[in-house]
Amino acid sequence: MAAAKKADTKKGRTRGAYFNVVGGKVTTGKKYCPRCGPGIMMADHKDRTTCGKCGYTEFKK
User: Is residue 10 part of a domain?
Assistant: First the structure.
C-alpha cells in the first residue's frame, strides 16, 4: 500500500517576492549584508536588521 503524498505547504514569501521590476530595472526591497556581500539579504525586524548567515546586526534608531 503506497502512502499518499502530502501537499507542499510552504509558509512565508517566495524568493521572487523580494524583487521589484520597474521599467526594465530590477530593485530589491531588502538590504544586502555588508559582510557577506550581494546575494545575502538581511531580515527586517521592528528594531533591527539582521543577517541570518553571519549574524551581523544593525539597530534602528
Answer: no
Residues with Cβ within 8 Å of residue 19, at least 6 apart in sequence: 26, 27, 28, 29
Residues 9-32 have a mean pLDDT of: 82
Q: Which of 61, 59, 21 is nearest to 42 (CA)?
A: 59
Q: Determine the 3-state secondary structure of 40 from DSSP.
A: strand
**Is 16's pLDDT higher than 80?**
no
The single-letter code of the amino acid at 42 is M
* pLDDT band at residue 10 under the 50/70/90 scheme: low
Domain assignment of residue 32, given as a range: 20-59
Question: How many structural domains comprise the chain?
Answer: 1
